Amino acid sequence: MTSTVPAPGTRTAEGSALQAVFLDMDGTLVDTEGFWWDVEAEVFADLGHVLDEAWRDVVVGGPMTRSAGYLIEVTGADITLPELTVLLNDRFEKRIGSGVPLMPGAARLLAELAAHEVPTALVSASHRRIIDRVLETLGPEKFSLTVAGDEVARTKPHPDPYLHAAARLGADPLRCAVVEDTATGVAAAEAAGCRVVAVPSVAPIAPARGRVVVGSLEEVDLAFLRTLITRMN
Q1: Which helix (H) or strand (E) holds 53?
Q2: Would you tell me how many other CB atoms lie within 10 Å of the CB of residue 169?
Q3: Which Pfam families does the protein's record reference (predicted)?
Q4: Taking CA atoms, which of 16, 85, 103, 111 is between 20 and 30 Å from 35?
Q5: At 7, is the secondary structure helix, strand, or coil?
Q6: Are 84 and 65 in contact (CB under 8 A)?
Q7: What is the pLDDT of residues 123-167, one digit of tens each?
Q8: Residue 164 CB coordination number (10 Å)
Q9: What does each C-alpha distance from 34 to 92, 100, 166, 196, 220 come to in angstroms?
């Protein structure tokens, strides 16, 4: 997918210290964390294994290699990581073939950011093939840049995806706001130096310095994100 970078004049919206907004995908913009768990359960059932619900908190929000590797280890399934990765992506892509449900407030937030020409990046641990399918629902025009988990040397919880997005947009990570739904994503964004809004989807996330926890994207708008940056700088 071709990414576009806004002209320099759009990098600081209306004089705000906020330079860019980075958004996670699964569980943040689209209600798909449950889809991933269902797909994992189905694939492992085909392999003769039942997943323990307690494992869900371990794999949520993680890169495919970590989540799939963990499930192979705890189940003892006779399958390689590359083979399982293909099965999971194939099953998930089929599941979302007719579109994906948006999280409450997602469409409104994306429209507001676009209307104010705020550089916005989708930063996900999902693979490119999955991101491009979800973008059919979200609208690729809403994003200046998209970063997939299989396009960086180290994906979340490492800071690389967010540092890459900031560099591509010519933004200072300290002046970038990130919206994430899992502890893995929050760790990646904070390691990159970004300010974080956590919207927990499956497991709780505690407030911390440089991080605000809200119950829904309906509580997040451009004014809120600008305040997050100015308050922390």
Answers
A1: none
A2: 22
A3: Hydrolase
A4: 111
A5: coil
A6: no
A7: 999 999 999 999 999 999 999 999 999 999 999 999 999 999 999
A8: 18
A9: 11, 12, 29, 23, 23
